[in-house]
Amino acid sequence: MARLGISRTAALALCLFSTSSTLSAAALPEGQGKEMVQALCSSCHTVSRISESMGYSKNGWQALFSTMIDLSANTEQQDIIASYLASHFPPNQRRVPKLVTGETQIRFKEWQTPTLGQRSRDPVESPDGAIWWAGQWGNLIGRLDPASGDMREYPLPASAMPHSVTPDQHGNIWYTGNKNASVGKLNPSTGKITVYDMPDPAARDPHTAVFDSKGILWFTLQHANRIGRLDPSSGEIKLVNMPRKNSRPYGIKIDGAGTPWVACNGNNCLVSVNPKTMALTEIKLPHQDTTVRRLDIAADGMIWYVNSGRGRLGRYNPESGEIQEWPSPSGPRSHPYAIAVVNGIVWYNESGKRPDALVRFDPKTEAFQSWAIPSGDVYAGIVRHMRPTRSGDLLIHQSATNHIIRVDIDD
């Protein structure tokens, strides 16, 4: 049965799963409501998230924190908090993106997930047309029926803290246990969860996973600096270390030949994996400040990647070795994050800006177009992963406000 909401107490308990450090109360300006904001907001994230935001009116702040915690039973407390935030953190222009106009039309279809404060992320379409997501801070994964809007959430084993979800060809949903060194499989028909523990406890943080055409699950382990392979038929897991220390493997995709490709979030590299031997080949990208959150592979075999460290979009040609990059519209601090190639068009987001911008790039014309990504009544990023639907649309999310979003594309 779907969870329809949580109380303030439950929300705070749920937020305590977070390992984010908090700042002292002195970091907030003095005023009525300071202690309330410190107690509630810093339970889930640093208060610097507030000062780094785009700022809101009183109504905007109330709309935003209502997606994170349920204070509807205490309207006086709501009013004090919203008034404090609006007074000290009004709208500002510090991180406004440069939005580019164009001819493509899109529509955002939003759903807010039931459990507040869960940091919903990484939505993906399963073979039956449902949309699944990972509620990392809520230690759950969820299912959305986009036709009816019905949702159901499945609690996971303690401390799994899933980073992503991936369906297999049989309809099972796999998640990466980012905090308990595991990969798990949910059978939606029975609710049974099968857990596959990492063979080495140092492999503590399975991150992003993808299936190849043979049904083998490949996954990254960012801070453990490894790449993994899991054979569901036997349960065997094999791990290999990245060629360089602190490469922090992040996004992973499979090309048309069955070769996994991995993005380096800590070094200026892409890495290909021999699917038989798991031998790794590193491709160094040109600038030492380059870091790559995610990548995707076009039908023509081109590797598209976000240069998160330098605010650029990149393309690597595996045949020729040619590397080309384009500055993102909002500049070097735009921090591109998620990326997907849909019908030959490259889509990504600028997570360093507020609002988080969705960017379209046409490789044929080299033209950009971009839109502000909504989160209900406010704009409060960020998108950490995006994946296409079978119909050629796009699934994104806003983890700060627990929103799952389908981008309907008229291209």
What does this structure look like?
- The protein is mainly beta and 411 residues long.
- The chain has two domains: 81 residues, no CATH class; 306 residues, YVTN repeat-like/Quinoprotein amine dehydrogenase (Methylamine Dehydrogenase, Chain H, 7 Propeller).
- Helix content is 10%, strand content 38%.
- A four-stranded antiparallel β-sheet has the order 1-28-27-26, with no helix packed on it.
- A hairpin with a 6-residue loop joins strand 20 and strand 21.
- Helix 4 crosses helix 5.
- The longest helix has 14 residues.
- The two termini are 38 Å apart.
- This is Virginiamycin B lyase.
- Pfam families: Vgb_lyase (PF24684).
- One of its GO terms (molecular function) is lyase activity.
- It is an enzyme of class 4 (lyase).
For this entry, give a set of tags.
globular, Methylamine Dehydrogenase, Chain H, 10% helix, mainly beta, four-stranded antiparallel sheet, single chain, 2 domains, 411 residues
Task: Explain briefly what this protein structure is.
This protein has 411 residues and is mainly β. It has five helices and 28 strands.
